[in-house]
Amino acid sequence: MTKPLNFLIAADFPPANYAGWHLLNTLVQRRSGLRLRLLMPGDLKEQRQMLETENIDIVYANPFDAAQLVRENGYIAFAKPASSSDEVVIAAKADATYNVVEDLPPGCQIALTSNGDVKLISLRLLEPADLSEDNIELVSVESYQGVARLLIKGEAQAGLFLAHAYHSMSKLAKSQLKIRVESMLHDISHVFLANPIYAQELAQLRSVLLDIGSQSSDSDVLDALGMPSGFVAMEQEDAEFMIDLMETLVN
């Protein structure tokens, strides 16, 4: 194959894992013989532009985007991180007077990114407090670091985080914040998807990806990714089940 495959990484990965994706891309290319062009958008807006304007062959997608890519664009799910689901954290400033989400008042300001699945799950977690989009003020920022800054400065009463991103923040940042609730869904995760026209390359890619972790040197790459357990296969029916679950949360 002369043309490299465009490999897009969802923009919501923690900055600490940036080098890990480059290490993974290099390792996969070396072991598979495939040529991969790594695309790492700086934010979700740039990600959407890439999906609309680039010919994306492989995607590491969040569950919200995966639903559209599978159902509307025919992408095939083939792997996901092992022992890693997409949980959500709702946090506040460490010294805030409210200790649980039920203490949050109507009209409160809640900071979030444009990550659709985090918002979707978080709104379900806010239901015990009788809070919804109708009686809260959502404050959009570009990154989870931006969400943390608003909380620390007292410019928002709560913030919505992808749990992996929250737990990857610096000790200093987390010392100024406190988790009010963390989801335990287990069945929702980021997934690797591929354009169906690359069936032959997909089998090779899946084999190499699932084998990462079998060599002692692989642990450095997986640790840099924040995925120490490596990857497991994901069948299309598993992806469909996850998408159905996402749609249930919407409704």
From TrEMBL:
Instruction: Provide the protein name.
Output: Phosphonate transport system substrate-binding protein
What species was this sequence derived from?
Lampropedia hyalina DSM 16112
